[in-house]
Design brief:
It is a single chain. The longest helix is centred in the middle third of the chain and has 22 residues. The protein starts with a strand and ends in an 8-residue tail after the last helix. The protein has a nine-stranded mixed β-sheet. α7 crosses α8. A hairpin with a 4-residue loop joins β33 and β34. By secondary structure, the chain is α/β, with parallel strands linked by helices. It folds into two domains: 181 residues, Spore Coat Polysaccharide Biosynthesis Protein SpsA, Chain A; 252 residues, UDP N-Acetylglucosamine Acyltransferase, domain 1. The protein is globular.
Length: 445
């Protein structure tokens, strides 16, 4: 059964996380949805936003976008999967069942639910989701659909709303499956913490790991340094190929270290941490997701947070993940408050962002893509700015500077800078222009 993986209109609610990557490449619970779907062994077509097509095709040439659709038999049903589907062992089991069950239908997610999920709904029953902004529509979303074989798919350049309308007009029955979607950036932290243990157990079933200590599993080339203390009472610790942990570290499970991830000496990795490949990590980290090629190698606390790719946190950078009142955290998106229903929420940092030494980030703040941050971060940070609000200055970061910075960063990791990488930065700059105009802070240009 061919699979169609699509982004819908609500994907922009995941900014700054989704500005530079398709939603199915967001890490959560130690997996990306793209990895789980690939494990199904079926031909895959994707529908991504136009500015991401070139980079996606360069990175995942086997997954067609603007090229000819993946071949399918005339009598083969089509499995549509929302790119915002939370990647989990439960989700992959549901997809496998859909492939073999032969039932046509639709799974709708988030009908009548608040943005914060069940916990937020308990706070008076109010719908915490803000009104539609910048073309983002409220209401139920299609999480999964099994379409009859003769169904004609929307064209490659169809708008997200057209994709959903196309399925809705088929009048398919509803399938009773619990398949949550990522609505807002803080949902990455929410579902990361609830799915990581099960996802790691699934990874161990599918992979080739050896147990090198009680509850600690290592792939080929992975190493633990001397005098490392591990605690696996709450879940396993999984080290992928060539991951390395330095001496005198503490790691409590569940935890996942991606291929080539490096944890330097005296680090503390606690209570649900997932590190992407080729990361370099130090200090204290708790309940967080760190995407590939990101550095947080110096002392400083990172808690219940998400760091995009190619981020660098300067020495002494810390964030708060708990309010002084011990109350539940509210986030601000599109200028409106959204209840998370969560007591612990740290910071959400977009791709290519950087912090200076001794930067302090307040609870529940977002840091935009390609931003440079200094001092205390007391408000959300737009993309492509030099943010030094505590010093009285917020200025725009020229995209040409970011292109040069990207080239230097790539060279350090022996990664080639491609024309599509450069164009993506220019596209990201234009797509986030409204953030700098509506940030509430005058730019000193």
């Amino acid at each position: 059964m061919p699979i169609l993986l699509f982004e819908d209109a609500q994907v922009t609610q995941l900014y700054p996380v989704s500005i530079g990557k398709p939603a199915f490449r967001i890490s959560c619970g130690g997996y990306r949805l793209i990895d789980l779907v690939a494990d199904l062994g079926q031909p895959v077509d994707v529908r991504v936003r136009p500015h991401l097509r070139a980079v996606h095709e360069a990175d995942c040439s086997a997954w067609t976008t603007s090229a000819a659709p993946a071949p399918r038999k005339p009598d083969a049903p089509i499995l549509m999967v929302n790119a915002r589907l939370v990647p989990s062992a439960a989700a992959i089991a549901a997809l496998k069942d859909a492939l073999v069950a032969g039932r046509f239908g639709v799974v709708y997610a988030n009908e009548g639910a608040s943005a914060g999920g069940p916990a937020a709904s308990a706070q008076g029953g109010q719908d915490a989701r803000p009104p539609a902004k910048n073309g983002v529509e409220r209401g139920p979303s299609i999480a999964l659909a099994v379409l009859p074989p003769a169904t004609e798919l929307p064209p490659i350049d169809a708008q997200p709303a057209e994709m959903v309308a196309h399925v809705a007009q088929l009048g398919l029955p509803r399938l009773d499956l619990d398949l949550p979607l990522l609505d807002y950036p803080h949902d990455i932290i929410r579902y990361h913490l609830t799915t990581l243990r099960g996802n790691l157990e699934y990874r161990l079933q599918c992979g080739n790991y050896r147990e090198i200590a009680d509850g600690v599993f290592a792939a080929a080339g992975a190493t633990l340094g001397q005098h490392v203390v591990t605690d696996t009472r709450n879940g396993p610790i999984v080290l992928d190929e060539n991951a390395a942990v330095g001496p005198y570290c503490y790691i409590s499970g569940p935890a996942h270290l991606g291929t080539g991830a490096r944890v330097i000496e005296h680090a503390a990795i606690k209570d649900g941490v997932s590190l992407g490949h080729t990361t370099k990590i130090g200090g204290e980290i708790e309940g967080s997701v760190i995407e590939p090629f990101t550095n947080k190698q110096h002392h400083g606390f990172l808690g219940h947070s998400y760091l995009g790719s190619w981020v660098n946190l300067g020495a002494g950078t810390c964030n708060s993940d708990l309010k002084n009142t011990y109350g539940q955290v509210n986030m601000e998106y599109w200028g409106q408050r959204v209840a998370t229903g969560m007591q612990f929420v740290g910071t959400i940092v977009g791709d290519y962002a950087k912090t200076a030494i001794n930067t302090g980030i307040f609870t529940g703040k977002t840091v935009g893509a390609c931003s440079m941050v200094y001092g205390f971060v007391t408000t959300n940070v737009p993309s492509f700015v030099n943010y030094a609000r505590s010093f009285g200055q917020v200025t725009e970061a020229p995209v040409d500077v970011m292109v040069a910075t990207q080239a230097r960063m790539f060279a350090r990791r022996k990664v080639s800078q491609r024309p599509c990488d450069i164009q993506l930065l220019f596209d990201m700059y234009e797509l986030t222009r409204h953030e700098r105009q509506l940030a509430g802070e005058p730019l000193s240009l």
